[in-house]
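Field log, afternoon session.

UNIT: design team B
ACTIVITY: writing a sequence onto a fixed backbone
BACKBONE:
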């Protein structure tokens, strides 16, 4: 059954309102503190069901030793070891798959099973996280793999808070696509905390991150921009310098607005989609190609300035142009999004290219030194 059919089949059966809230910001900005306080406050004062999925708690901590030399990607570090980008991205996608499975099971009142070929540690951590918050219970399964049953709230809405850095807009857009796929509420909370405050808090933590990791993430942070991106209109910046974890009326108002106005799953016909693509495909591809070529040119200049060996410069150029071709192909085909989710756009392609090219550059520079 397709996502749109799931949503239609579940109307009137699942929670009366269901929403996804993305919590983003620098490490040590106070995201987890706010998430816990928000969950407690909404449960106590409004009788909402709230589930907090903290990526740092759910994502596996075991990465190969060579990951220590890898560039900053996704989860910032694990005991100062940086995960390899492809592995980390695969785990993020897998976590979203687990989350989607939970949503489908919740909407259809069916059992939740581990996705085939998934990472056992991630699945166990994910289900343990939901069980601890009363959102899952064991399902009777005399034979076969263990399964779980979602626990719909007795009354009121269910809000799922995703707690991660989400510093690239493309990371948050994946969650928006999921909300759109199932006609759920969606909103973003950005914790705006001064860099120096984050560095001080981080320094007091066991296994603190390298300060440069946080500085680099700050330079790359793409804050929500509702004026530029319509899909980010349900966004709120929360000042975190004082470390306050109290939900303001403005914050709860944002959550209510998101729940009351779920993202619409647009179910266009295949013919209409193809016609729309034909109108703008050439222009979009041209502008995307120009943007990526500029990035390639600048990256090669920086690599030359860093005195990368000529053979490695040639390999880097080939890898960057291959990556450019692959992303343009995805853009031309409308991305890998399901039919009623939003296709890849130029900002998404540029963000993905930046992520991958940083990994490639770091790889060749590390090999040289």
């Amino acid at each position: 059954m397709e996502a749109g059919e799931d949503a239609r089949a579940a109307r009137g059966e699942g929670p009366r309102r269901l929403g996804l809230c993305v919590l983003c910001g620098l490490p040590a900005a106070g995201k987890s503190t706010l998430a816990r306080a928000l969950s407690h406050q909404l449960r106590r004062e409004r009788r909402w069901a709230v589930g907090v999925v903290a990526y740092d708690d759910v994502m596996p901590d075991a990465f190969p030793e060579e990951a220590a030399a890898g560039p900053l990607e996704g989860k910032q570090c694990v005991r100062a070891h940086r995960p390899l980008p492809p592995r980390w991205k695969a785990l993020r996608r897998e976590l979203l798959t687990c989350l989607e499975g939970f949503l489908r099971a919740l909407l259809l009142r069916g059992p939740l099973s581990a996705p085939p070929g998934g990472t056992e540690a991630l699945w166990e951590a994910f289900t343990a996280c939901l069980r601890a918050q009363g959102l899952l219970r064991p399902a009777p399964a005399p034979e076969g793999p263990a399964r779980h049953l979602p626990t719909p709230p007795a009354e009121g809405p269910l809000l799922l808070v995703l707690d991660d850095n989400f510093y690239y807009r493309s990371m948050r857009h994946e969650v928006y696509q999921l909300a759109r796929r199932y006609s759920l509420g969606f909103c973003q909370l950005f914790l705006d905390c001064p860099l120096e405050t984050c560095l001080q808090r981080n320094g007091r933590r066991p296994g603190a991150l390298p300060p440069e990791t946080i500085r680099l993430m700050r330079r790359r942070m793409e804050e929500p921009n509702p004026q530029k991106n319509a899909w980010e209109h349900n966004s709120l910046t929360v000042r975190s310098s004082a470390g306050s974890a109290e939900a303001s009326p403005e914050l709860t108002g944002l959550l209510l607005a998101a729940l009351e106005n779920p993202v619409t799953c647009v179910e266009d016909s295949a013919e209409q989609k193809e016609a729309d693509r034909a109108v703008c495909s050439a222009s979009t591809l041209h502008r995307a190609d120009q943007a990526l070529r500029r990035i390639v040119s600048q990256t090669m200049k920086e690599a030359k300035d860093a005195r990368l060996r000529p053979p490695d410069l040639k390999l880097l150029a080939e890898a960057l142009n291959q990556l450019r071709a692959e992303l343009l192909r995805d853009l031309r085909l409308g991305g890998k999004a399901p039919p009623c989710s939003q296709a890849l756009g130029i900002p998404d392609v540029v963000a993905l290219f930046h992520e991958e090219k940083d990994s490639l550059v770091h790889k060749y520079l590390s090999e040289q030194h």
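LOG NOTE: The chain has a mean pLDDT of 80.
NEXT ACTIVITY: expression trials, pending approval
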